[in-house]
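dumping this here so i dont lose it
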């Protein structure tokens, strides 16, 4: 089986938990887009692990692949490898030689661009992701394979610094000494990563041919896609299912199962439109109940009710086979739960609402909640399966299935890994 797990909202849907759940110890796990702007937390009996580059199932899989479509900060990569290997010493790590390198210079550019945007800032993670993709497409990017030669890195840094003069004005990255220092620092990461670096597409082709169990994990969420998302409040890579081809070399035709992950409500970090956003006390209540603070930046996330028109759009765009719903326990904090079923007049494309072309108000239905689940109740559901899920939760899930016309196959009802269950 070759599965693809991706988010249908604004990121932070809990994809990591689903990847972790469906991947076994023999799986090949693949990431194909984004960089450290993504982030996920996995809670196991051994503790809480936060990853930004490595896919979520890394703790127990056999092989992980960071594809060519990613942008990689070598320092972060080395640090995550140091965290993972003691936990999973047999893990094979492969990093694409063609992935682009995020440098401190790109982080400085990210910061400077946001300052220049002023009131219309995007609210990026400031991890240098956008500028690194810009470099890639301007064909001046530093690729992972360049790190083996300090002279190549230095030459590229000089060119970037020259071309980006106005963005780097006032930063330290215009001095020759600083660029020397940065080139040396980047090249010094090579000995620690060189054994992992390869043309990953060849490995992936072979894995497909030999029928390996494979799980591809999309970074970010569909509504942050550079083309189909709420532009300009988006990330700088494609996050839709088709990106696996350009980001890893594996054709979407090779995927047997596309799982669209949604959180039981909506959240968003950074700026940009959010039709079902809650404000004030209700927002605070949901944020606290769901611990909605960014894994990557620690920023409080904006939160709101589930938005079905947007999920239907994302589900069609990605051609998903099934849905997976996470954090269902969180909505138990409310007596009544709302779902946005439509907007107040018929719209040609729900993205036009996000893009501000069509002004409209969400229309809600309300449903009874299942109340706060005690640890023992969650435990009971985990042990006995879906039949023990409270009826109100089953109704909520059934409503989503009906509205989206997609089956829900996996749900998550608590923080720990074991609280993810299959809906028969
Ligand atoms: P960038 O990806 O750092 O350029 O940030 C662009 C926008 O995408 C910002 O609003 C970020 O908060 C958001 N973003 C990027 N990656 C993620 C993610 O994995 N989860 C949630 N939001 C994200």
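and the seq i came up w/
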């Amino acid at each position: 089986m070759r599965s693809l797990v991706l988010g249908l909202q604004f990121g932070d849907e809990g994809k990591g938990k689903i990847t972790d759940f469906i991947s076994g110890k023999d799986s090949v796990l693949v990431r194909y887009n984004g960089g450290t702007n993504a982030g996920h937390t996995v809670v196991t009996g051994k503790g809480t692990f936060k990853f930004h580059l490595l896919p979520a199932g890394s703790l127990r899989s056999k092989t992980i692949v960071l594809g060519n479509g990613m942008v990689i900060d070598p320092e972060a990569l080395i640090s995550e490898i140091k965290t993972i290997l003691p936990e999973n010493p047999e893990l094979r790590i492969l990093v694409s030689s063609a992935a682009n390198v995020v440098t401190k210079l790109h982080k400085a550019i990210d910061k400077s661009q946001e300052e220049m945007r002023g009131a219309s800032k995007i609210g990026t993670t400031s991890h240098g992701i956008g500028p690194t993709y810009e470099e890639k497409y301007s064909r001046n990017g530093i690729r992972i394979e360049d790190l083996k030669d300090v002279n190549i890195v230095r030459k590229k840094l000089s060119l970037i610094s020259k071309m980006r003069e106005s963005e780097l004005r006032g930063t330290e990255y215009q001095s020759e000494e600083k660029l020397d220092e940065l080139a040396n620092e980047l090249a010094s990461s090579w000995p620690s990563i060189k054994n992992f670096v390869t043309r990953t597409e060849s490995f992936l082709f072979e894995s497909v041919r030999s029928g390996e169990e494979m799980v591809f994990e999309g970074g970010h969420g569909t509504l942050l896609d550079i083309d189909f998302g709420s532009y300009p409040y988006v990330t700088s890579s494609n996050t839709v299912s088709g990106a696996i081809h350009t980001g890893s070399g594996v054709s979407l035709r090779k995927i047997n199962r596309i799982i669209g992950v949604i959180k039981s409500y909506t959240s968003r970090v950074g700026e940009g439109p959010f039709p079902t956003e809650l404000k004030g006390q209700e927002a605070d209540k949901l944020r606290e109940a769901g611990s909605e603070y960014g894994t990557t930046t620690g920023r409080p996330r904006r939160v709101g009710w589930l938005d079905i028109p947007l999920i239907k759009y994302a589900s069609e765009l990605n051609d998903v086979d099934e849905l997976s719903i996470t954090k269902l326990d969180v909505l138990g904090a409310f007596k009544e739960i709302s779902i946005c079923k439509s907007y107040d007049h018929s719209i040609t494309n729900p993205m036009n609402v996000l893009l501000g072309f069509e002004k409209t108000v969400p229309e809600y239905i309300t449903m009874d909640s299942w109340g706060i689940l005690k640890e023992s109740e969650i435990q009971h559901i985990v042990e006995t399966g879906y039949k023990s899920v409270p009826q109100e939760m089953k109704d909520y899930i059934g409503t989503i299935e009906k509205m989206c016309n997609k089956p829900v196959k996996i749900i998550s009802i608590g923080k720990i890994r074991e609280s993810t269950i299959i809906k028969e």
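Residues 11-12, 37-38, 122-125, 127, 129-130, 219-220, 224, 233, 235-236, 269-270 surround inosinic acid (CB under 6 Å).
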